[in-house]
């Protein structure tokens, strides 16, 4: 087996296949661990941890805790970011994978034919080839952008001084997480978003995040398109037919991701692609029956946990010849801003577009959750969307640590559990996680306390 790319997806396939006794050649042209370890999840969450600590220090006075003046030592913050990468790196290292029996080649790979892959020093004829080359920051064709220096996720974590005024282009998960982190570390931040902030998520949940970003002092411009960029950087922005300029000290481009497929010579292998990535069937197989795609390169979503899920499907399919279905995966999505926004399955409007009136929506505010009250942080809510018969279609949670509380729903949806199984669970008190059981319980409330049930109880009491 040949695996191209040693990120979350490629490493998981390589580890699984090698431990099952296959001969595996793994090509990696950059850092072992790919985007997640080096330029994505790990450094961003380490930066967010520092920003959160600064924010909590400021917020402590509301709970009666006085903290002295809070100041940021940016070089120490960055040292923490790089220490987190270094602590996790051994898991993804060349030495570890060679120890598992993988032949690791630190070179760029490309297709020579439908089953031959080559790098500068090696040529391999493979039975199965897994493309796990990930994605990179999309650079939009905004006039002038190519004439000014700008940051992407690949260069941002190399900063040695805190940006004075950071302009963030794009209000998706990357722009929101990093924009808020830099604001809380002391930068002035402007987020320029062409449409709605976190536009793929429930609008009411995104509004809770938007309110917090503004309370943090971030200037969030929604419905605002960057139309020209000149040095400064100065960004010309169009909104509601008006043009205004935004000036900063640094510019971060976070307007989406493009699959990293250039230089692979996929046409020589007959592998078809579209703008999202390699076109695959439900078993993640491409138009070439020997070639599979996983992770960001497969264009089915961009999450480390999804890349890992793809890897296990590909191992099952290619090694055990078992049927698998990547179309049926239920993938949780979490934006690690504060408050966190976590969701799985369909949002309310998507569900309505598919199921029309055959829909029920349960809503529960953290303001009614005892733990949230005790913590003095009642921002956010949970929303459960089902069919009228109770089939679970999706869940959105927005609030402190919402990401940890979407796990329940990930299990429920992937295992096809019923709402009644959630209500029969004992949820420990007082936890924010109780919101899951409350949403499920609320679904039964109208039927439980209906006139019909009362009439039934009136009859039963004569026999009890
Ligand atoms: C700032 C940021 C924050 C993120 N935060 C999160 C998060 O909190 N949670 C989450 O789930 N996801 C997060 N993501 C997304 C996550 O990083 C990606 O979904 C994940 O890394 C995809 O894994 P992958 O294996 O598909 O690709 P990658 O991790 O990108 O790995 C691909 C590898 O292939 C190599 N490669 C490419 N072409 C070739 C070639 N021709 N030959 C040899 N090697 C090649 C690359 O060098 C790279 O190492 C974040 C992304 C960013 C940018
Ligand atoms: N916590 C996580 O799991 C996490 C964190 C970061 C990234 N990711 C993954 O990486 C993906 C990419 O994130 P992203 O935020 O770069 O992309 P995105 O596509 O999710 O959001 C980009 C935003 O930029 C806006 N935009 C596009 N062109 C613009 C322009 N010219 N001017 C102003 N705004 C413009 C879009 O409207 C969109 O809202 C995510 O969708 C996610 O799958 C995950």
UniProtKB/TrEMBL annotation:
* Requisite cofactors: FAD
Residue ranges of domain FAD/NAD(P)-binding in the record? 2-311
Alphabetically list the UniProt keywords. Answer: Disulfide bond, FAD, Flavoprotein, NAD, NADP, Nucleotide-binding, Oxidoreductase, Redox-active center
**InterPro entries assigned to the protein according to its UniProt record, in alphabetical order:** FAD/NAD-bd_sf, FAD/NAD-binding_dom, FAD/NAD-linked_Rdtase_dimer_sf, Pyr_nuc-diS_OxRdtase, Pyr_nucl-diS_OxRdtase_dimer, Pyr_OxRdtase_I_AS
Ligand binding (FAD): 45, 133-135, 296
Name of this chain's protein: Dihydrolipoamide dehydrogenase
Which PANTHER family does the record match to this protein? MERCURIC REDUCTASE
> Which molecular-function annotations from GO does this UniProt entry contain?
flavin adenine dinucleotide binding; NAD(P)H dehydrogenase (quinone) activity; oxidoreductase activity, acting on a sulfur group of donors, NAD(P) as acceptor
Question: Locate the Pyridine nucleotide-disulphide oxidoreductase dimerisation domain: which residues?
Answer: 331-435
The cysteines covalently paired via disulfide bonds are 36-41
Q: Which organism is it from?
A: Caulobacter henricii
Task: Return the cofactor note field.
Answer: Binds 1 FAD per subunit.
Q: Which residues cross the membrane?
A: none
Q: Which family does it belong to?
A: Belongs to the class-I pyridine nucleotide-disulfide oxidoreductase family.
**Which superkingdom heads the taxonomic lineage of this protein's source?**
Bacteria
Ligand binding (NAD(+)): 170-177, 193, 256
